[in-house]
Amino acid sequence: MKYVIALIIAIFIFCSCERILYDDNPSNTFEENFELFWSDFNKYYAQFKIRNINWDSVYDTYNPIIKSTTSDYELYISLSEIVGFINDGHVNLYTPIANASCKNCLKDYSSSVLINPGKYIVSGPNQTYIEIIEYGNIVNNDIGYIVLKNFSGKGEGLDMLDERYFVIDEILDEFKNKTGLIIDVRGNTGGNSLNAETIASRFADKKRLFHRYYQKIGAGKDDFSDWYNRYIEPNGPYQYQKPVIVLTSRKTFSSAEIFVMAMQVFPHVTIVGDTTGGGIGNPIYRELPNGWVFRLSTKVGATADSYIIEGKGIPPDITAITTKEDSINGIDRILEKGIEIIENY
């Protein structure tokens, strides 16, 4: 069964922040699987307090349900209910039965996508890494448009920079005479934060504090590290210092939020759109004796001024929403607001 699970999670490992952690082989009973699931969260999960979750009460609710006569499906139902209750985008359960994730994951949400691209964008030339970055020009305007689709890395790429993201230097060289740029991360759900910081460094005016976090470091409920600080500074051959708009939505998540936090500390950058998803997390993967895999958040992330974003997100500087009706009518309100701001800068 462990080989089945390995296939299930293969597509997820590339965008995680930590490798899967395997335990020794405890007994594979329904009771033991539940106990290890609950105890791993008790040891490693960092966000119970900020999400107002009483983890002991979760145990009291579900422990009587899990017995030797429990079926795989019944165990899955219980664990998936717990995952949904936590409601953290970095908490997931992967099983041969089904996968489980946050209960409020957005589906029909028009603000996360570019609406009617032919109306707004003139596509750029043949592009090398279109799977991660695509660019073009705003119609009838001297504004560049870049969509950062994800920050995932090649191979395992968990703690290594992916050289494909250096293509940003070629793009900025092409756009250096534009009056401004719009960078779209509305549908970017994250990946490797080093890739996000690589892109952001090309817009830095000087070294600045942009992100703070603390993490779980022990089994006790209050075993947390002190605050850590992360800084962003100029890197690469060229830093773009003209007006920049970053478009965000509730689907802007994880390492894409690292990117937003970095960009928002630069004086020439304005964040436009909806509040981001609210989850830095630094997730790790764990494996149960039955081979099922789950992941959980070990970190609490905040902006430079210590505003914790977990479960809340990063508010934009200027709010703009594209409604379902706008989408049907081919109107991208968020992009139009970004264009308007640069035109009137």
List the helices and strands and how they pair.
Blueprint: H1 2-13, E1 20-21, H2 30-44, H3 55-62, H4 72-86, E2 92-94, E3 99-100, H5 117-120, E4 121-123, E5 133-138, E6 143-148, H6 167-175, E7 180-184, H7 193-201, E8 208-215, E9 228-232, E10 244-248, H8 255-264, E11 269-273, E12 283-287, E13 293-297, E14 299-303, E15 318-319, H9 324-328, H10 333-343
Parallel strand pairs: 1-12, 6-7, 7-10, 10-11, 11-15
Antiparallel strand pairs: 2-3, 2-13, 4-5, 5-6, 8-9, 8-14, 12-13
Helix pairs in contact: 7-8
Characterise the protein shown here.
The protein has helices at residues 2-13, 30-44, 55-62, 72-86, 117-120, 167-175, 193-201, 255-264, 324-328, 333-343; strands at 20-21, 92-94, 99-100, 121-123, 133-138, 143-148, 180-184, 208-215, 228-232, 244-248, 269-273, 283-287, 293-297, 299-303, 318-319. The protein is of the alpha/beta class and 345 residues long. It has 2 domains: 2-100, Transcription Regulator spoIIAA (2-Layer Sandwich); 110-280 and 302-343, 2-enoyl-CoA Hydratase, Chain A, domain 1 (Alpha-Beta Complex). Strands 4-5-6-7-10-11-15 form a 7-stranded mixed sheet, sandwiched between helices. The longest helix is centred in the first third of the chain and has 15 residues, at 30-44. The chain is elongated. The relative contact order is 0.18. Mean pLDDT is 91; it is low at 1-23.
